[in-house]
Design goal:
The structure holds 2 protein chains of 2 kinds. By secondary structure, chain A is mainly β. Chain A contains 1 helix and 27 strands. In chain A, a hairpin with a 6-residue loop joins strand 20 (about 250-255) and strand 21. The chains are: A mainly beta, B mainly alpha. Chain A: It comes from Callorhinus ursinus.
Amino acid sequence: MEDIYAKFVSQKISKTRWRPVPPGSLQTADTFAAGSWDNEENYVSLWSIGDFGNLDSDGGFEGDHQLLCDIRHHGDVMDLQFFDQERIVAASSTGCVTVFLHHPNNQTLSVSQQWTTAHYHTGPGSPSCSSAPCTGVVCSNPEIVTVGEDGRINLFRVDHKEAVRTIDNADSSTLHAVTFLRTPEILTVNSIGQLKIWDFRKQGNEPSQILSLHPNQQHVVATGGQDGMLSIWDVRQGTMPVSLLKAHEAEMWEVHFHPSNPDHLFTCSEDGSLWHWDASTDVPEKSSLFNQGGRNSTFLSHSISNQANVHQSLISSWLSTDPAKDRIEITSLLPSRTLSVNSLDVLGPCLVCGTDSEAIYVTRQLFS
Amino acid sequence: MEELDGEPTVTLIPGVNSKKKQMCFDWGPGEMLVCETSFNKKEKSETEPGCPFIYIIRKDIDVYSQILRKLFNESHGIFVGLQRIEEELTGKSRKAQLVRVSKNYRSVIRACMEEMHQVAIAAKDPVSGRQFSSQVSILSAMELIWNLCEILFIEVAPAGPLLLHLLDWVRLHVCEVDSLLADVLGSENPSKHESFWKLVTILVLQGRLDEARQMLSKEADASPSSAGMCRILGDLMRTMPVLSPGNTQTLTELELKWQHWHEECERHLQDSTFAASPHLESLCKIMLGDEAALLEQKELLNNWYHFLVTRLLYSHPTVKPIDLHLYAQSSLDLFLGGESSPEPLDNILLAAFEFDIHQVIKECSIALSNWWFVAHLTDLLDHCKLLQSHNLYFGSNMREFLLLEYASGLFAHHSLWQLGVDYFDYCPELGRVSLELHIERIPLSTEQKALKVLRICEQRQMTEQVRSICKILAMKAVRNNRLGSALSWSIRAKDAAFATLVSDRFLKDYCERGSFSDLDLIDNLGPAMMLSDRLTFLGKYREFHRFYGEKRLTDAASLLLSLMTSQIAPRSFWVILLIDALPLLEEKEVVFSAEQTYELMRCLEDFASRRPVWREPGVQRLQEDVENTKLEMLRLALARNLGRAIIKEGSLEGS
């Protein structure tokens, strides 16, 4: 992998996310947000990767990413999502969810909205104002869904002061991540490794059943496990993962399908490596896990990271079909092993990742 | 141990009236806690309000500098890389690889230095600007020392190339030359520039004779009167014999040629060829290595090691490494001329010239406030097999001692502790023990951080630490009423005792509420159920409920019976289990066989005879009454069931 630029930024990076490009535009990604953790003062920062052929003022490398602006963030940045072109939502270890607004004319970030007690513990032993870390956030304009270590799911709407809907005690253990399946439905994963689907249209506080969907659509979900296992689930087809692949040597922190080339999957892990899984095959009739469906197949592929306890009974017969049949090619993208790679994001041909060695890596030529 | 001369610095604690009140303190791994006590110095009972704060005093503030953090992170990568390739380093390539590692370290220091320099220039208030500038000079000194150590200890340059390396070393650290060169060349009439001769002199002092020659040719063009002299001097410069890297001359050949050249220069001086131009004459004297002439240029030389290298260049170009220290000492003395005393940096460089590595490291440790430099340098030199084992008080060698100190300093930092882990890994004697002690004390504010810490412990098979961390997290979860989390932590730690505790909580909740909370967890325990008896009971009991819900009554019945007879049910739960049998007994079909009914009856009598004695009289009687009623009903149902079962089993298998 050529042309990967590293920059040491004096803070451990917990999340990096590309700013979404306006739909239908030909631009490639040029700005990303990064959040830090484990510092006495944490920051959410915006970086720009500039254009080709630009040398910045002190003769730095062409293509080296530059800091645009940053803002103090109270608590570790546990999760980060772009709400739209100008707004970023950050989830904090103090249980607070903040919406930051970027002002492009003077390059500053400011706090636009904040829900300070989104997540908290209530229990016989916990003090009355004990906060719980908010572990995941996902946005779909105008809604924001957050989950936390208190096992609570919150549904916020921007510009509403209180949560629109809260499901208390949705899970008895920590909820690690959340993603949207379709707009009123979310999928959560918890620390024991269970996926649950919730439907906000329903009134109760129970997860809904797995719904059967339109036959031409596939819901392929990938999860990364505490033991580095990659599981592929087909949400229509029951309660077991479709395949399990032994991948990294330590926790897999993030899994992303490429948004426009769903044959490509990216994973990053505590063992300090970032892998690119390429399942694209040139033989069209070969049926691959990622390629089923007719012309209408939209790949609503989602990535959730975190623990999945692998019980022996879960390794089903699908496991043997994968490597040989689908010919997945795996390449490691980082030049040398570092401390944990905490986060990655892909958009178009660009990839950004952040590590515990306090470095941010960017490449703009993923598919060269 | 050496004694430090100099008074220790006094640090005033703001807000504390140290004249009147006494302070108390406590040491931490890298810091000190200080606060005011209510004891007065003079025994008078004054009740003024004291200072309510506790202060943390840190000696090592470098760890908290934003820019130096990059140094720590990058050098950590280089350090780990070096340890990993250690096994592959053999033979000839070993030296080259070690030199490369050393250059990597140096480039990281330089990058840091440049960034800090930019910040110092851009600083808005003068105090911080000064701080940054002093930091820049410390980094520059570190790089200077490292570079010299690289030349002498790692590269181990022999006589000949040694001088070339030393020349490079000096050139790297005097940067005004290039800007001056650009300045003068860029001006309209270079030879009339006011700094022209200064520039030429510096070029000669640094051995950059080609550039000096170019300058002289400009002078020759400008003033024809001195053209002749310039040409002659230029020729002398051109013909000075130097050892070039690809050259196959031996050292003796070089010496011979150099002697000839030296004599030629002397002849020109004797013949007063350059008498007309004092500048040119002094240049010639410099090229002859005349000490007096060199000392005249003290200002341009700026420091004694520059003087040393220039002196060697023009008087002993084939100096051997072991002779270096003689020249170094005399250069230092001549340069300082008795006016000032040597500074710590000078002593360190002298020690390096004397090839006394231990002295170098000792002096650096005293002079610098942070262990970074000595730890990494010592580690690199250790890989070059240069350090004999130097026994310190607790038996580990110097490299390990320094790495341990450095890593402990990192652990005191809220964020850089992750780097410290790798350093401890490469300390064979005390590293593991130190890591065990430090890693338990990292504050765990989120589960994600806890997972990282646990991963570190599990990779190193530190089972004790894993258990203790999981126990802390499980306890926190229980307090926050997250029973599922608590259970998953105790399963991860394989902590049977805690799993029992959590299961008891679940069962207690069931007793109070009549239904289970968190069914998702209990239903999916899988093999983890075997961790503790109570947990197994919980899982099986839930299974019983499931069977009942699915109307698989015979399965439910046999499960219930096995739960009671296998003794894994806690005493307090027996009554509930027995009561649970009631609906099964009341079913239309006979669910329990005769055998099973006998078993049940036995259990019932067992339970009834061993009922715990209640201590409180009032509540007790009511509860006892309720229980007695239940047991009576049970006895009745059992008797009826027995009857039906006997009849059913006695009759022919009809339907």
